[in-house]
Amino acid sequence: MPMSHSSQIRGGIDLGGTKIQAVVVDAEHKLLGQARHATPTIGGPRSILDEIAATLSEAAGAAGIETRALAGVGLGSPGAVDSARGTIEGAGNLSGFDVAVPAASELAERLGTRVALGNDVGVALDAEAQLGAGKDLASFVGLFWGTGIGGGVILNGRRWLGRGASGEIGHMVVKRNGARCPCGRRGCLEAYAGRRAMELRARKLVENRGRETKLFRLMEKKGATRLTSGIWAKALEKDDELAHELIERAVAALGAGLASAVNLLDVEGVVIGGGLGSRLGEPWVARIAAAMQPHLFVPARPPLVRVAALGDLAGAIGASLLALPKAAARTA
To answer: Which domain holds residue 101?
Structure first.
């Protein structure tokens, strides 16, 4: 690839608790290269930042470019992201990120180009709004179904930021005094539908009630340490009774939570992505739409409910938008 074009080529990184997804895209957001590595679970920030750099270097290599020749790199991360200071903290699923980590400067040094930070769910939502399933919708709720339940709201074509913590649909209460959520509260949507909470419940049912399931055998066979979206999908394919029970429990909670959000905002649509949302796809998203129906205040006019068009790459492609010049970002 001629280096003269490199000024328009950007990198995007989606940092999650289980995986690091990196992409390299051109000025038209076309995918030129990608790579995916596991997120280190030990070793603190240095090990994670080293792995991020290695993942993006692999994606850049697939695109025929060195990272230092990229116009810039965006990183979408969980936790409290301070884009002005270039720090990430309070990301409980990331080793050592409970305190502020100067991720932007550390990565810029490793990659040889400028790095911008953003919230992982926020950048994925922006990508779906500008390039994906929400590009024809003036208003929609985005829900990202994965390890946790992330969300966001697009109103009149712009992401609603509130006072800095908007869109936390995973912490809408779907049952008073209900199941304990990983956040410590009770009855949150995430307590029923988040992959981490579902795994904890599966373990309790196996250990305390002797329930049978293929879930953990599939996990061991894959050499995984957690129940990934792929393992849940495989268990469903094998008609595992406990997997079906827990996924259907999640769908019921997702239906109630999303319908409540729609009742409040009266948006045109709902876009569902994330690891589980993208992996399970249209059949299960259709079930979520059906689960919403009894709870809708105007059931005769339901919102459009769609699978995220960018799939598992929404976060990384959305992060690449952070590397656009500000004027270009507004018109992308």
So the answer is: 3-120+314-331
